[in-house]
Amino acid sequence: MTDTTSELGTGVPRREGRDKVTGAARYAAEFAPPGRLYAWPVPAIVAAGSVRSVDAAAALALPGVVDVLTARNTAPRAPADDPTLNVLQGDDVPHRGWFVALVVAETLEAARAGAQAVRVHYDTRPHDVTLTRDHRERYVPEEANGGHPAVRERGDASGAFDAAPIRVDAAYDVPPLHNHPMEPHAATASWEEGHLTVHDSSQGSTAVRAALAQIFGLAEDRVTVTSAHVGGGFGSKGTPRPHVVLAALAARHTGRSVTLALPRRDLPAAVGHRAPTLHRVRLGADPDGILLSVEHTALTHTSRIKEFVEQAAVPARVMYGSPHSSTVHEVVPLDVASPSWMRAPGEAPGMYALESAMDELAERTGLDPVELRVLNDPADEPDSGRPFSSRHLVECLREGARRFGWEERDPRPGVRRDGPRLTGTGVAAATYPVLVSPCRATATALPGGDYLVRVNATDIGTGARTVLGQIAADALGAPGDRVRVEIGDSDLPPAPLAGGSSGTASWGWAVHEACATLAGRLAGDPELPPEGLTAEADTAEAVEAGSPYARHAFGAHFAEVSVDTDTGEVRVVRAYGHFAAGRILNPRTARSQFLGGMVMGIGMALTEQSTLDPAFGGFAERDLAAYHVPVSADIPAPPAIEAGWLDEDDPHLNPVGGKGVGEIGIVGMAAAVGNAAHHATGVRFRSLPLTPDKVRAALARAV
Q: Is the pTM of this model over 0.90?
């Protein structure tokens, strides 16, 4: 080994950057085995019912169409543990957009034309897709997403609220939201001598291999899934999705390789979405602003085939101290597509509601919104009583306020006017849990002085290859350019998915352990065999032992907005986020993640929403023309938008000290924008997004 200054903690450029900008990086749909066919799905056009018959004659008559797959002409398969993967396995249609047929053709154009020519006849049944606060089917589940108890109670929250001198009782609404990664969900599948190989756009190919093996009755070593490069996922590619099952099914049915890239208009109903959440937050405080009671009830919807409950009330169990607390999740099963993960599930909508209510409390107590949060910062995690491994929210608030120029703020709402434009500033706190999962990795010293690190991590645009290379080089005491990293293949040592801001912490722990073990074996300069010397690591025992500490990242968001009182348009003028997220392993990639999350939070606040058509049962906003993700014209350019962080040393995490940065950036951003809009106008907005029609109507009512 060669002693060298460690690159860990420096802004090393992305290893795959050049390949991506030159087109050398290959994505799932770009793998082209000889004789490849193309597939195009046929989604159901009824809200609920069953398939009576499929007329494929017109499609099969088109040039280039090879076959039309349905539940009635494909070989039987085992039911998946995840019901959303049981496509073409029966006649039931649980929601609009459920795939009921698949056209396979020689060209993409022929597959699309064939899908348009398929005629499906249905038997329908009554449907309900509308979430309301008084819905008769609402119930309290046992758990919310992530295994969190649906209900947590401390003391007498309701009684304490009724007795509190100062009270906030408010309802907040967040609409359905969609992930819309740049690369749609795609897979290329091939069968050869009973072995299934799939190139999939997935956040975790280990889980995809397990699902495909179960569905097709294969041993896992007869399935290989690669996810070499993934063009974003934001949670929607976190678990296997129907496209990969359909691609494998079509390849087995035709005996040829098949590529299926889902049309963007099919994504909202096929790959999950952030379910709408209806919140009620009640805060009781004394005249000094000390919280006496915190209550947060979150109501959401789920599909009738799979229960998924957005854990939106969970952040209220973490954020602020109070002697009395009640956090409750409720859910309504509807005839809707199954919701799933979207960046910072639970925390993003939940903190919008909680941090908006905290802003309302600050106004009623006459306290500065930053100071109110500082005043209620707890020493230990409120609901569990566990000590925090580290908690630097106050420092984030203080430093963020300093860098943003918060002290120059006039606290009076509606006073900064320039013609029709009003300007205001807002703040919100952020939190996200530190998650880690068992992982395996190997590290090999090769003759000639190079090293090979192998782990089935997935790079979804976050720079995983780069950071893992830095971790490995640091543990080996080797130059970074002597370390090669192999990821994105299920034949590699198994690893958890890229999600929950847990990827680097999980993979990095295993990589560090493997490399540290290898470095120890190399300390005596042994002669290497021709195949090299390999060390392995498996973190399962250490990870599953758990921790006595409550481990979370924290942050503070600040926003300045301009509100046009003539048009109702809200624009973000400035935004700043300051974060405490453990050791920052690569400032360049971390800053990119923080800013990306902040931009997504601005979209949540101002432009992004979806609606369920009560008559036809589907999402009305199904593409990027109708579903408005923020673009460059919507976001101020740096340095008007910027992120910073504390150098946080937390010894209770993992060997590399990282907490994860992929999701903390979105949490709290929408609330900061909403609070700024209130400060600008004096009008409180409680329903996202703050589109011009809503804002203009609210301003007119306030006159």
A: yes
